[in-house]
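[09:14] KT: can someone run the structure on this one? pasting the chain below
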Amino acid sequence: MAQINPSILSADFARLAEEAKAVQGADWLHVDVMDNHFVPNLTLGVPVVESLARATDTPLDCHLMIEDPDRWAPRYVEAGASSVTFHVEAAAAPVRLAREIRAKGARASMALKPATPIEPFEDLLPELDMLLIMTVEPGFGGQAFLDIMLPKIRRTRELIAKHGLQMWLQVDGGVSASTIEQCAEAGADVFVAGSAVYGAADPAEAVRALRAQAEAVTAQSSWACDH
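[09:31] RB: done, structure tokens below
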């Protein structure tokens, strides 16, 4: 089943509780944490995640675009995140970190920037609950989807199938009504959508429409039939 994770990076930060309620029916809320070091942008941190976790019943999917995730990622689980994604480019000990996130009770996820290949990390896949393929350069919302990432999504799905894993494959960046079907056909099943949801007149309806698009394609895709 396709999952839609609205990104609050595109929401009104002054009204986060209301913006969380505006996407009723979303599978997760995607929370972009940026430190102005790993990426050239600064967003929010642990205190805001703690407040948001109290304000919504929708589980939080925290994407850490930060340096030293080995130190900070466990704090986001303690703050209320149900899934924590660290960037492999920033992690010193990704296996140990994934195990610590899981041990604290959250889903462990690893993200790859566009230029980072998946193949060197094949042996890490069993340690993860989700893998995130960035379909834009991380740091800013509203960027155009990089269709050259589609082969990488396909290769990642093939590796997941090769190892018989039940992990999710997430895409983040430029996901919209015009790109989500390509991502689903390539093998993604979790979709982060920012402006495509929060820029819509009815964000909750946008979530439903995107999910329906993705599921229609997934039902006919070879990777899902083999899954």
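[09:33] KT: thanks! The chain has a mean pLDDT of 95.
[09:34] RB: yep, looked fine to me
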